[in-house]
Amino acid sequence: MTTSDNKEQQTIVITGASRGLGLALARDLARRGWRLIIDARGADALEAVRAELAQQTRVVAIAGDVTDATHRRALADAARELGSVDALVNNASILGPSPQPNLLDYPLDVLEEVYRANTIAPLALIQELRDTFTSGARILNITSDAAVEQYEGWGGYGSSKAALEQLSHVLAAEQPDWRVYWVDPGDMRTQMHQEAFPGEDISDRPLPEVSVPGLLALLTGDLPSGRYRAREVNVAGEPAHEPAPERGVRELRVALTVADYEAALRLYRDGFGLETVKEWNTAEGRGIVLAAGRGTIELLDPADSAYTDAMEAGQRVSGPVRLALEVADVRATAAALERNGGAAVHEPVMTSWGNPSQRMRAPDGMQLTLFQLPPAADES
Ligand SMILES: NC(=O)c1ccc[n+]([C@@H]2O[C@H](COP(=O)([O-])OP(=O)(O)OC[C@H]3O[C@@H](n4cnc5c(N)ncnc54)[C@H](OP(=O)(O)O)[C@@H]3O)[C@@H](O)[C@H]2O)c1
């Protein structure tokens, strides 16, 4: 059970939630029942996100630019209508020119735009929302390693994030009732990252979902104000893990990547007469889980299989067969496997479908997904 699940519905404002990190966080929180106020400039992409997440929670989506005072006022009005705000994530941000010029050639009018979006707008939104914040409100300002490193070409964006960091630091001192976090999410495979590295293959960068558990730990845990790297935040801030990890496997799932999905359905579902446990058909691909005696068989079309690999392993590694094992505690089981010849393919992730998971490799190369299901109501 998560801390947030304990409380009455919480309300969060997330800027820039139509894609990338903002979307990954919004999806996670929608699943947990948080009420969302979200924005982005592009109205169509934002509306698609609103329609998706409104199936799970209350979502107010307001298209607009965070640098626009009227838009920020509209966000605050929406917040007042919902009552109060438990958290704000200043995530919307721009890179500036791509490719990024060195400082001596940096166009100053563009630098002003970058500062307006990345530094001034976050503070302006905090000012606008100040009366709506609950005591103990969480304010997360998303920054970057470029705020503290001296990467060539990153002087415009980096200094705007450095200013946001210092502004957060002082705000934390001035407002001890709030928790103010300035957070480096790490490199992520997003549109902004692709803009930063035009023409480069960025498929080795982790999906933004990998940075979400750390943000969640900050939102729901009790960590002091300060600078954090999202992927290093102790995720123990999130679930109150059971004291003694249970050994063994709760469910063995054989995940088959099938080129001819319909033919496989016919054989496994209809041929064996297996019951459907769950089924999906999304933009990312199609799949089904079938009850098969004491275990389950999962059929995935190649697109869904590739998406699952990207999410869990950060690379395309699975062959036609992968084993997925439901366990009580992913981290504890992964550690036990490592002591016994298994190797981690990737760090643990919170998947976009809501399961803490970790991809492992058996000595013979078999891909193993360890996954944890949310506790049943009577377990929480
Ligand atoms: N990706 C990385 O590797 C990386 C690394 C370090 C830090 N970060 C930080 O992580 C955060 C998320 O980045 P991301 O990679 O997810 O970026 P992204 O994929 O470009 O997404 C940015 C989001 O913000 C919105 N947005 C941009 N400017 C806006 C504005 N002026 N007003 C309102 N919405 C705006 C975008 O929608 P519209 O364009 O439609 O407005 C989009 O929804 C940013 O603060 C970024 O600086 C990213």
Describe the structure.
By secondary structure, the protein is of the alpha/beta class. It has two domains: 3-237, Rossmann fold (3-Layer(aba) Sandwich), CATH 3.40.50.720; 251-379, 2,3-Dihydroxybiphenyl 1,2-Dioxygenase, domain 1, CATH 3.10.180. Helix content is 34%, strand content 24%. It is built from eleven helices and 16 strands. The strands form two sheets. Strands 8, 9, 10, 11, 12, 13, 14, 15 and 16 form a nine-stranded mixed sheet that branches. The radius of gyration is 22 Å and the shape is globular. The protein starts with a helix and ends in a 9-residue tail after the last strand. The chain binds NADP nicotinamide-adenine-dinucleotide phosphate. NADP nicotinamide-adenine-dinucleotide phosphate binds at residues 15-22, 39-42, 45, 65-67, 91-94, 117, 142, 144, 185, 187-188, 190-193, 208. NADP nicotinamide-adenine-dinucleotide phosphate binds next to helix 2, strand 2 and helix 7.
Radius of gyration: 22 Å
Portion in strands = 15-25%
What small molecules are bound in this structure?
A: NADP nicotinamide-adenine-dinucleotide phosphate
- Summarize the amount of helix as a percent range: 25-40%
- Tell me the name of the CATH class of the largest domain: Alpha Beta
CATH fold category name of the largest domain: Rossmann fold
Examine the secondary-structure arrangement and name the CATH architecture of the largest domain.
3-Layer(aba) Sandwich
**Count of alpha and pi helical runs:** 11
Mean pLDDT: 90
Low-confidence stretches: 1-7, 237-245
* Shape, principal axes of CA atoms: globular
Structural category is alpha/beta
